[in-house]
Design a protein that fits this description.
single chain, alpha/beta, Rossmann fold, 6-stranded mixed beta sheet, 6-stranded parallel beta sheet, 14 helices, 12 strands, globular
Length: 357
């Protein structure tokens, strides 16, 4: 791994490697871009195979947060942090207070929140050391309803771009996963009259969707073989890959999972096959919007309304893709980069209270 080459290629501003020997805390904070505002991104607690894998994850995820915030129209940059180790450790206060001290050392350039392996209670420990943290107990609450609403609106926009109508009544949607986002998405789909296939490794979660929304449950590996209009990945990442591309019988892909494409070439292949794809970090941006709403004390309805704007963003991405002759995942990047460049190119104004040195 050539660290400086990777940082340069991905466009990162800063990478902070952290250690507190008192509690054996090892952490990495990656700040990708702060053109639009402070870098925001959750803290992931995970046992990585190597330090290179941990750094790569932080770099990749922080870059994704920059693009997610940019296309959502939020005044935030992208960041991410990872804590390396066993996320089942019992001495969580010491670990997360140590983490909070390193976050505080960045003086507001980075704001953290919960992520894989962490919880709102962990963020409460971070809060003891810094105010630059969100996702706290009793504030923004569960982001899944806002995330699911954004996915639902993005799915309707993708349907409009593909079929000329946003109406999902009578459409068949294969939903992979039955967690909180998938459950709330299924609620919206059922209310509109869509037919639902559902799967999850937890049969009880899938059966809940069957009972409440009339879905048909299938085995996890069989979800890719269902004849449907829309595939909605809402659990695992990389479910659009060499194997599933040969099995999927859908015309639209729109779901809430992160990192849906196993590789960029799979996005190219979707475009070649005429399958309309809603880029993952755009359609699932409701979670970030929910955190942004917490930071700015928005009422829940305002966050939901902002998530609804994902509809127009998705339509804009399809317009760019058609205009420029590129796949939608590249069009999403282009839209994000345009906003960052526009704001970054603004002239700075001189103020009388600024003293020259």
């Amino acid at each position: 791994m050539d660290l400086f080459s990777d940082i340069k290629d991905l466009g990162h501003e800063q990478l902070v490697v952290c250690h507190d020997p008192s509690c054996d805390y090892l952490g990495i904070i990656a700040i990708h871009d702060t053109t639009l505002g402070p870098a925001l991104g959750g803290t992931r607690f995970w046992s990585y195979d190597s330090s290179e894998a941990a750094i790569t994850d932080a770099l990749r995820l922080s870059r994704g947060m920059t693009y997610k915030a940019a296309v959502a129209g939020l005044n935030l940059g992208g960041g991410k942090s990872v804590i390396v180790g066993n996320n089942k450790r019992s001495d969580r206060e010491a670990i997360f207070r140590a983490h909070g001290r390193f976050v505080e050392s960045l003086n507001g350039r980075y704001i953290t929140a919960e992520d894989v392996g962490t919880s709102p209670m962990d963020m409460e420990h971070v809060r003891l050391e810094t105010r630059h943290v969100a996702g706290l107990v009793g504030l923004s609450g569960d982001p899944s309803p806002v995330t699911a609403f954004g996915v639902y609106m993005g799915m309707k926009a993708t349907a409009k771009a593909h079929w000329g109508s946003e109406d999902l009544h009578g459409r068949t949607v294969a939903v992979q996963g039955a967690g909180k986002v998938a459950y709330n998405l299924s609620r919206h789909l059922h209310a509109e009259g869509a037919r639902i296939y559902i799967t999850d490794i937890d049969a009880d979660k899938a059966n809940r969707v069957v009972t409440e929304f009339g879905a048909r449950a299938v085995a996890p590996e069989d979800i890719y073989d269902q004849t449907a209009d829309i595939y909605a990945p809402c659990a695992l990442g990389a479910t659009i890959n060499d194997d599933t591309l040969e099995r999927l019988k859908v015309e639209v892909i729109a779901g809430g999972a992160n990192n849906q494409l196993a590789a960029e070439r799979h996005g190219d292949e979707l475009d070649r096959r005429g399958i309309s794809y809603a880029p993952d970090y755009v359609i699932n941006g409701g979670g970030l919007i929910n955190v942004y709403g917490e930071l700015h004390a928005w009422p829940e309805e305002r966050s939901r309304k902002k998530a609804g704007e994902i509809y127009e963003t998705i339509l804009r991405i399809f317009e760019i893709a058609k205009q420029d002759g590129i796949p939608t995942y590249r069009a999403a990047d282009r839209l994000a980069e345009q906003r960052i460049a526009a704001v970054g190119g603004l002239d700075r104004l001189w103020f009388a209270n600024r003293q020259s040195t």
